[in-house]
Amino acid sequence: MEIFKNGLDVKLITNSWYEELKMKNFGAIITFVGVVRDEDRIDGLSFDIYVPLLKSWFASWEEKAKYKGAIVLMAHSIGDVLNHETSYIAGVCSPKRRVALDLIDEFVEDFKANAPIWKYDIVGGKRVYAKDRSTKLEGAGILL
To answer: Is this prediction's pTM over 0.85?
Structure first.
């Protein structure tokens, strides 16, 4: 799990994962790249992360993946990410493609629902909580 300030360098991150893992006998290395869309008159998104809880969430996924002979990877932005930049990259490596394909879907969906990351719209240089596009995290509130 890696956290970077502002937009992610997709080529640098995904290429480093590939170079590190290609010789470890995985038959599938799958990535998901989340790009900030230009919509609803926003200039981008801004993110706050509660790192200790995110590490715990990610560790549970590492265990799930390990049980299936796979590994999970993740990079996410903290701070501002402008339209058409990347805020999230997920990866799954496994010996068999079906395991990787199933896990990447489950991992990304669970991330959207349960990762302790708060999203704000950037409108006119100000952060506005994106309540209508956020999922309530059990026991959590808005970080201000």
So the answer is: yes
